[in-house]
Amino acid sequence: MWIGLINGVVIVYTFKNTEITNKKSSEYETKSMLYLMGMHPNSGKVEIVIVDCFNDVTGVDDNFTLMLDVQSKNYATFSPSLIGQSLYTLFDNYVSKFNFHDYVLFSKPLNPNYLHDSNLRSFDYGNIKKNTQERIEKKLREVIIKNHKSIDETQFIQFLDEVTFFNDDYPCSHYIKKLSSFKSKSTISDLTYGNIFDEIRDKQSALKNSEIENETISTPKEVLRLERYITKLQINSLIISRIIGVTDIFKCNGIPVDFMIVINEEGLTKDRDLLKDTIQECNSNLSRTLFDKGTSKKFWQLSEAIIKIVRESKSECVYELYDELLLKVKKMPPHMNKISTQYLISLVLQGMDNDL
């Protein structure tokens, strides 16, 4: 919430009513976080998601020039009165001095009788029927007047025109699939996707263990010092690590057994420093390819192709698998040279041994 001038100096944002939520609420907050990273129209710009500070989740770019605010609700029955009440935190941010760029109410599908077109998954306030709007606005006005003592009707109507409603009826696995960008969704089992979702949910929930009640900031970027955020880089790292079956794909915690044939063939066993440099270069090339916006999709496509070949091939030889890959993938991502690709093949082979 916002408070007035402090000693005539600056208006600050004060965090109020932060909470620790139950498992079902956490699931919806995680869905809404992954929606911001992979399904919102501006997902390509979202690099950080702030958790339970401005709202349930808020997606931002690196410089906080984009702020997407989300309130998530998992009510089985979402009445117009509850909708109005749930819109309040979004309204509170709308009237703040921080510049938010979208206000999203993320929930289970609204009652079809409330809507002009119930087939839309994402829609604006105009898709809600007049009689339902009246009941929503009645409750929202009550909450605003209770907290703000008065209401600016022009501002009130302008806010409602800015709200996006997102009706979620997807399984948890869908949100991980959208981020992984695999074309063939059968490449990885839904159980694996579900386990990844649960791990992300637990990491997100753990951020709420810190106490931030009554903390204040004067610029949006200051929220980072509260350490309640997750980056897209962290999420993508976790997803690809779990899909491939390696604890942390980008940390050089050992050499994959199947990569030893490459090490011997390239004569790297004779020069320890050169071996270390090569492994570091392979990890760097994987990281650059995944986290470069221009090549990230190609990284997922390459990983998918390797997983498919490893599963279907009769060979477990890195060189033979690499040759098979070249028949399937005509153009490699820029940073993925031969040895880096063979290293990735070795990681996938290792992951298959872990029974992914």
TrEMBL record:
<protein>
    <recommendedName>
        <fullName>CD-NTase associated protein 4-like DNA endonuclease domain-containing protein</fullName>
    </recommendedName>
</protein>
